[in-house]
Specification:
about 450 residues; alpha/beta; TIM Barrel; 8-stranded parallel barrel
């Protein structure tokens, strides 16, 4: 099989502001919750912070040139809320907007289409101090106002918008019951209900932002949500195991309480029954706000979980990974290429949204990358990973599912949240001491995929 993609398939890469920009006090930017969190002793591996990261704020022109060298025509990036509205609400910092204008000018010069994420976890510290960030419903309205400020200023250059990236990560991983979480804002709460309340507020923020983007855009635009839902993959593709995987999907991870309300307008009834008194408070009208019409959905695909039919009360069982199961250089990053195909299929069939186009907005892996004596990074493990996941993407298209594009995570090694600079996901190797970017073997391989419009 040639694994050729359709004409017009969108090949891209993705990044996030806090992971690459650095320059945390430049041009009027004020602290985000990640600045505060990473400054706390013991929170980040080896004491790293995003203060410099990849210094993209100063080196964006070089980085866009690398994108052009790679051959991509689509770039997904995020904007830093605290660079644009430093206090989280109130006056707009036009100097911060100007940085993104310069970046957009550079992308336009190379014919690269921008796809902008309004929020990738780095909320303003000022709002944490004012009302506790996502613990408050006020966060949703402040986020919508931020969306209006951005889109009214940059909507002449950006027509592809994503509201929020991976709600679970800054809510359920940023808040925890009676212990300090591993993600910012790093808030310990008293009950699971309070954790679910934060993700409900994030869903409200998404819904209000969808309305704000469409109201503020000077012309036609597309609006999406990006989620890293965890697909349940049938252990065998028997009818029984496929049915079990579909049944298991709603209760797996946070699928039934984040993705499902956003795409269907209702929390999974099975999830609400399971949560009982820990279910979030959902006010009248909330679900109508959450369930906004979307032009597409962004799927961040890394791993899945195997499920099979079983004689249990639920009729299925979700299987643990056996000892020795292959994984990349993250404790959670099991090698499950079929999860990309099954994730797209679950969107169309399990959630009954065959109408909704999909872009894989992140897919990649951390490897134990190092320079050889010749100055190369021979990351054949990353090539193996990307090749198999792209074949899974190809299968989805061949079977008629509406996959439109693929954004590799990520352009270059960067600040990997709690893992600091220790875990490398990039196609470009970042030498943090010199800020030199060195193309890895995977960079050249992905460039050839793009050139030939197929998996090579």
């Amino acid at each position: 099989m040639s694994y050729e993609f359709p004409p017009g398939f969108e090949w891209g890469v993705a990044t996030a502001a806090y992971q690459i920009e650095g320059a945390i006090a430049a041009g009027g930017r004020k602290p985000s919750v990640w600045d505060t969190f990473s400054a706390l002793p013991g929170r980040i591996l080896q004491g790293a912070t995003g203060a410099i990261a990849c210094d993209h704020y100063h080196r964006y022109a070089e980085d866009v040139k690398w994108m052009a060298e790679l051959g991509i025509k689509h770039y997904r990036f995020s904007l830093a809320w605290s660079r644009i509205i430093p206090d989280g609400r109130g006056s707009v910092n036009e100097t911060g907007i100007d940085f993104y204008r310069r970046l957009l000018d550079c992308l336009q010069h190379y014919g690269i289409t921008p796809h902008a994420t309004l929020f990738h976890w780095d909320s303003p510290q000022a709002l944490e101090e004012l009302y506790g960030s996502w613990q408050s419903r006020d966060m949703a309205q402040d986020f919508a106002d931020y969306a209006t400020a951005v889109v009214s200023r940059l909507g002449d250059r950006i027509t592809s918008w994503m509201t929020i990236n991976e709600i679970v990560c800054f809510t359920h991983i940023g808040y925890d019951v009676n212990r300090i979480p591993v993600h910012a804002p790093g808030t310990s709460v008293a009950s699971l209900k309070q954790v679910w309340q934060t993700s409900h507020h994030a869903l409200l923020a998404h819904g209000l932002a969808c309305q704000a983007i469409r109201a503020a855009s000077p012309g036609p635009c597309s609006v999406a949500l990006v989620d890293n839902f965890v697909p349940t993959v049938p252990l065998t593709e028997s009818a029984a195991d496929i049915a079990a995987a579909r049944q298991a999907f709603h209760l797996h991870g946070t699928n039934g309480g984040i993705l499902e309300p956003a795409l269907t307008g209702a929390y999974s009834p099975a999830l609400l029954a399971q949560l009982g008194e820990n279910a979030p408070e959902i006010r009248d009208g909330d679900l109508a706000i959450v369930h906004q019409p979307l032009d597409w959905i962004g799927f961040n695909s890394y791993f899945g979980t195997y499920a099979r039919a079983a004689e249990t009360p639920a009729g299925y069982e979700v299987l643990p990974f056996p000892q020795g199961y292959p994984q990349l250089n993250m404790p959670w990053l099991h090698f499950v290429p079929d999860c990309l195909y099954w994730g797209i299929r679950h969107l169309s069939e399990t959630l009954n949204r065959p109408d909704l186009p999909v872009r894989v907005t992140e897919n990649g892996c951390a490897g134990q990358d190092s320079l050889t004596e010749a100055g190369e990074v021979l990351d054949s493990d990353r090539i193996l990973f990307l090749r198999q996941y792209l074949r899974s993407a190809h299968r989805a298209i061949q079977e008629g599912y509406p996959l439109q594009g693929y954004f590799a995570w990520t352009l270059m090694d960067n600040f990997e949240w709690a893992y600091g600079c220790d875990r490398r996901f990039g196609l470009l190797y970042t030498d943090y001491e010199t800020q030199r970017r060195i193309p890895k073997a995977s960079f050249h391989w992905y460039r050839e995929c793009i050139r030939q419009n197929r998996v090579v």
